[in-house]
Amino acid sequence: MCSSHQHHDDVAADASVKGVTFKVDDMTCGHCAGTIKKAIEHTLPGAAFSIDLENRKVTVAGDAAIAEKAIQTAGYQPERLAH
Question: Count of H helices and E strands in the chain?
């Protein structure tokens, strides 16, 4: 969980992204979402993804295992949701 509650306004949900969705309960603020955004962009360059901070969900189009590892490496605990 994040102790720095700075906000990143460039993180927004995009319902059009299709892929694997993770519930990330410890993503509690804009800073958390920004950290996850950077981790996914670094690990899966060019992959489409969306971050829904309000519902604490991250959806990634691409390799689910790599996306999950990226979120974990960023310091968060993703839980893959069944479709």
Answer: 2, 4
pTM: 0.82
Q: Report the distance separating Cα 63 and Cα 65, nearest Å.
A: 6
**pLDDT tens column, 6-50:** 444 445 555 577 899 999 999 999 999 999 999 999 999 999 999
Q: Scan for tokens 């920004």, then name that residue.
A: 34
> How many alpha carbons fall within 13 Å on the CB side of residue 29?
8
How far is 38 from 70, CA to CA, in rounded Å?
A: 9
